[in-house]
């Protein structure tokens, strides 16, 4: 009697191999998409669907609907989408330039800071707009920024964002090229940390996600510490807080040094 082909499911060893691979895939998916998110977010009372969404890095509709009508309980009241910003025109950029005269003390005349404040020149327009909105609504706390934005209209904030996004993304030439840390290029899958570059750089740039290249070292470190200790919480779906909680002081310093040198 002729033996069945090795690649045929009639061959019992092939069947056993396929079954073993399927079991391994299911166990890996359960660990990565269910156990790890639950283990890293014990205090967040995630549902099964929210845990899967958190691991996949996507928004969970159930979490959004569970927030209720109290805007103060949300991380932000800005609806982030690819079409959240209107096309900027010369009038919008001009109005933004006038409004930005109040911002030069901290953010520089051309949007490049010398005071460890964030550099805004060439920053993502939607990222600037979201942060201004969050300062105004109280979702992001700052004793300096909140009074500055208190009287701005929605158009004012959009015009400021358009102006700073219009400015060239100026950076001083670095004497040495730092190799990208593993957290930037690959993340840390065993800790459920995605690569920083998957959101903050290159072709993977997402709506309202800021460019980190060239931002002051001190500013980046302070923000990562703030996400880690929960004093900053305007990140949608707690994406940054979930990451920062697992970073060591040395890793935060390494990331800040890398991005500030670019």
Care to give the gist of this entry?
The protein has helices at 12-40, 48-56, 61-66, 90-99, 104-107, 125-137, 145-149, 154-166, 182-185, 197-200, 217-229, 239-244, 249-260. The chain has 262 residues and is an all-alpha fold.
Architecture overview:
The chain has 262 residues and is mainly α. The chain is built from 13 helices and no strands. The protein has 3 domains: 12-66, no CATH class; 74-170, Cytochrome Bc1 Complex, Chain D, domain 2, CATH 1.10.760.10; 175-262, Cytochrome Bc1 Complex, Chain D, domain 2 (Orthogonal Bundle). α11 packs antiparallel against α13. Mean pLDDT is 85; it is low at 61-67.
Number of strands: 0
Terminal residue distance: 68 Å
| CATH fold call of the largest domain | Cytochrome Bc1 Complex, Chain D, domain 2
Q: Average pLDDT, to the nearest integer? A: 85
Radius of gyration: 23 Å
User: Which geometry do the CA atoms define?
Assistant: elongated
CATH class of the largest domain reads Mainly Alpha
Measured as a percent range, the helix fraction is: 40-55%
CATH superfamily of the largest domain, please?
Cytochrome c-like domain
N-to-C series of helices and strands: HHHHHHHHHHHHH
What structural category characterises the helix and strand content? mainly alpha
CATH architecture name of the largest domain: Orthogonal Bundle
């Amino acid at each position: 009697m002729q033996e069945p082909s090795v690649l045929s499911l009639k061959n019992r060893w092939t069947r056993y191999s396929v079954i073993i691979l399927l079991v391994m895939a299911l166990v890996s998916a359960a660990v990565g998409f269910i156990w790890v998110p639950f283990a890293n977010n014990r205090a967040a009372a995630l549902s099964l669907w929210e845990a899967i969404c958190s691991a996949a890095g996507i928004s969970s509709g159930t979490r959004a609907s569970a927030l209720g009508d109290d805007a103060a309980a949300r991380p932000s009241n800005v609806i982030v989408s690819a079409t959240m910003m209107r096309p900027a025109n010369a009038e919008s950029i001009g109005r933004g330039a006038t409004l930005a005269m109040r911002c030069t003390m901290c953010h520089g005349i051309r949007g490049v800071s010398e005071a460890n404040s964030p550099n805004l020149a060439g920053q993502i327009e939607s990222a600037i707009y979201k942060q201004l909105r969050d300062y105004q609504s109280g979702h992001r706390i700052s004793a300096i920024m909140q009074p500055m934005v208190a009287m701005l209209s929605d158009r004012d904030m959009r015009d400021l964002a358009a102006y700073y996004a219009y400015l060239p993304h100026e950076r001083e030439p670095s004497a040495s090229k730092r190799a990208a840390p593993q957290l930037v290029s690959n993340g840390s899958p065993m800790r459920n940390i995605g690569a920083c570059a998957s959101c903050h750089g290159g072709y993977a740039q997402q709506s309202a996600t800021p460019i980190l290249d060239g931002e002051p070292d001190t500013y980046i470190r302070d923000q990562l510490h703030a996400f880690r200790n929960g004093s900053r919480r305007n990140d949608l779906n707690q994406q940054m807080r979930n990451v920062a909680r697992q970073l060591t002081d040395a890793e935060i310093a390494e990331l800040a040094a890398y991005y500030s040198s670019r």
